Amino acid sequence: MFVLYGCSALLIAADCAVISLHIVWLAGLLSILCAVTVIFAVYMQACRSTLSFSGGKLMEMIHEFVLDHLNWDGHGTVLEIGCGTAALGIQCAQKYPKASVVGIDYWGKACNYAEERCEHNALAEGVSGRMRFMKGDIAHLPFADSTFDAAISNFASRKVKLQPDKRLVVKEALRVIKKGSPFVFHDMFEKKELYGDIQAFVRELRQEGVTELHYISHTESLNFIPNYIKVPWILKNMGLLYGRR
What we know:
- This protein has helices spanning 2-19, 24-51, 58-68, 87-95, 111-124, 166-175, 192-195, 198-207, and strands spanning 76-81, 99-105, 131-135, 150-154, 182-187, 212-217, 239-244.
- It is α/β, with parallel strands linked by helices.
- The protein has a seven-stranded mixed beta sheet, with helices on both faces.
- Helix 1 runs antiparallel to helix 2 and helix 3 crosses helix 4 (87-95).
- The radius of gyration is 22 Å and the shape is globular.
- 31% of the residues are buried.
- Residues 1-6 have low confidence and may be disordered.
């Protein structure tokens, strides 16, 4: 709707330029801007549709890719860090029918609504009996050491506002899972402002005793992701960190 209003304004301005000011070149420029705006709006809508669970289901495929790297027998409780609307956690509960899932997120001002939405989504997908949700700071998880049997996350770093060093968020997530338990984190690990040198961080985690650790760089380049999504303003600097604590 905003794009339509903007284009209407540009077209009106173009008409005024011709009728009142007789500036043909300005009218042409405004018309080109209008066309570019419409094309970009259509492109962004196509990207949203591709990523949506009701459209192209690309995010569902990304979640499947994440969970395929969780080497787990599905017994026990998995923590979804930065659960959002619980999409990844729900997919995990469906893949592992004997597992319980705890989702945690800060959610900001929309906390009550967001938690209710998670519960609604879990109920709609038939897994509500094995899922629960809570508000919390994922940089300082409100759980004791070695609480969970597995941990998962997808694009969680953007939800951490008060901890600029996202490496500490990863270490916090590892703290709350049991020794030898699996984990898989999909995030902007290639972004140096957030994680520094990711290869150095991987070496650091190994030195600190992580049992098994693997890293896949630039997952935005995966074959199942359409080329028109592989652009800096949609997906970039992604990586997958997985293994066992």
